[in-house]
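> call design_seq(struct)
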């Protein structure tokens, strides 16, 4: 059962070959056997997961209508609020925070009869590219336990890659779904900004954050997106447009298909094995009749600089609420209010979060806001214009998801700039608000997965998924599993 996709597990239940309880027990057993080494999860309530599964089986037995994910275990990144369950954001400052409500996407999962199997580890407040910034543990890549699974949604990616859950939710602020999906050899998708509600997502960069799916294949990713997408009046940035039935049209080819290849995605710093795998993937599309068109995204080299001004400025504002007063960590010994706030934040936040708060506060400070933050917003607009012009010529843009395969734990921990460059190909999509997906497209000689990134225009998820599925039908990279 561990090798089956969520779609296949749904079919087994429909045929009477499996129950929600047996499926949940199988994935919990996998968790018990392997998570002591992988460390993908922060919180798992096995008894509660089994109770959820029994309730689904009772509904099926009673002839009640069931949701689209009935009996399917789903892992959830620990930045999404879950009523009555701890939500820590991988930070000591929220070590004992138990939300009184569910995030919108959690409500949607419950309505779809999914089994919430546990909360996954992540970089603190989703700030990182390796899941090494978690205050609690370092998650390891199931393909090589000495290497990182990527970040910030590394726990969610590792849980799916290690078959501890068939589906998972992550968040993507600058590549935090696509980059770990690439490094773990699975499918990861960032929807367009506004496609999925952010209500109940603990904010990092409010104009960049987006919730999205991890899965073993494109069909499962489409299914999970179908469940969580849609308008939510509680999120003013959530767009009120109909959600297409992504799974219904998945196998319909797009003809003619024009693929844009940006020269900026194949420059200095790109590993030769990664480039070779991506070029091979492009040939697969050419074999299916697609036209490859060279394009330019001239402002994409500025994306990392722009991101680390915009995202940190928003983080500086969003994280100001953690002051030791209303909720979160409060220091034990202090002399007055200012001392309490300083000590509470000093003890509660990790080094990377402090670095980004200081960067953002500086960029927003009097005398510097025009030179840094406002200039970054102008360049952000130019990055979006580059994509608008590209999508006027082609259906999708393709390139590598990450410049390298999974790197070793600790390899970049002391070099923030090298770590930031791990997201050099993913960040521009967040700045532009467009959708993107990473799918497996090969392996290095040492057996590490390589991801192909496909980018689509705003709210073009249906087209994006169909293009991704076209490659998947012609290859078997997505069927490979790590030997745990």
């Amino acid at each position: 059962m561990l090798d089956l996709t969520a779609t296949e597990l749904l079919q087994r239940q429909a045929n009477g070959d499996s129950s929600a309880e047996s499926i949940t027990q199988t994935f919990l057993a996998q968790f018990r056997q392997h998570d002591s080494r992988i460390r993908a999860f922060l919180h798992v309530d096995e008894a509660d997961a089994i109770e959820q599964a029994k309730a689904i089986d009772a509904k099926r037995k009673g002839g009640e209508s069931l949701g689209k994910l009935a009996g399917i275990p789903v892992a959830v990144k620990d930045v999404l609020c879950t009523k009555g369950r701890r939500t820590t954001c991988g930070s000591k400052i929220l070590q004992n925070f138990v939300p009184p409500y569910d995030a919108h996407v959690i409500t949607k999962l419950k309505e779809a009869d999914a089994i919430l199997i546990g909360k996954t580890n992540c970089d603190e407040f989703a700030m990182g590219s390796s899941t090494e910034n978690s205050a609690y543990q370092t998650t390891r890549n199931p393909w090589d336990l000495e290497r990182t699974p990527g970040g910030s949604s590394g726990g969610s990616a590792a849980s799916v890659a290690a078959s501890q859950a068939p589906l998972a939710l992550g968040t993507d602020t600058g590549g935090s779904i696509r980059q770990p999906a690439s490094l773990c050899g699975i499918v990861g998708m960032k929807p367009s900004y506004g496609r999925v509600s952010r209500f109940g997502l603990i904010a990092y960069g409010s104009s960049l954050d987006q919730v999205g799916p991890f899965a073993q294949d494109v069909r499962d990713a489409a299914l999970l997106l179908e469940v969580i997408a849609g308008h939510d009046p509680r999120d003013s940035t959530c767009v009120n447009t109909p959600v297409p039935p992504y799974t219904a049209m998945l196998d319909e080819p797009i003809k003619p298909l024009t693929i844009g290849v940006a020269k900026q995605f194949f420059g200095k710093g790109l590993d030769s094995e990664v480039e070779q795998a991506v070029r091979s993937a492009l040939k697969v599309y050419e074999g299916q009749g697609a036209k490859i068109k060279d394009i330019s995204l001239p402002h994409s080299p500025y994306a990392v600089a722009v991101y680390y001004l915009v995202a940190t400025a928003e983080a500086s504002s969003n994280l100001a609420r953690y002051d030791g007063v209303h909720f979160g960590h409060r220091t034990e010994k202090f002399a007055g209010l200012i001392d309490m706030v300083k000590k509470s934040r000093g003890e509660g936040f990790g080094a990377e979060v402090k670095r980004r708060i200081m960067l953002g506060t500086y960029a927003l400070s009097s005398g510097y806001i025009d030179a840094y933050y406002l200039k970054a917003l102008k360049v952000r607009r130019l990055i979006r214009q580059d994509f608008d012009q590209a999508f006027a010529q082609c259906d999708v843009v393709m390139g590598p998801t990450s410049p390298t395969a999974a790197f070793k734990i600790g390899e970049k921990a002391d070099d923030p700039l090298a770590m930031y460059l791990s997201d050099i190909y993913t960040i521009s999509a967040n700045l532009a608000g467009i959708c993107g997906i990473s799918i497996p497209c090969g392996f290095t000689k040492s057996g590490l997965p390589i991801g192909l990134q496909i980018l689509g225009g705003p709210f073009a998820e249906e087209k994006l998924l169909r293009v991704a599925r076209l490659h998947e039908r012609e290859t078997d990279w997505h069927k490979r599993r790590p030997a745990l």
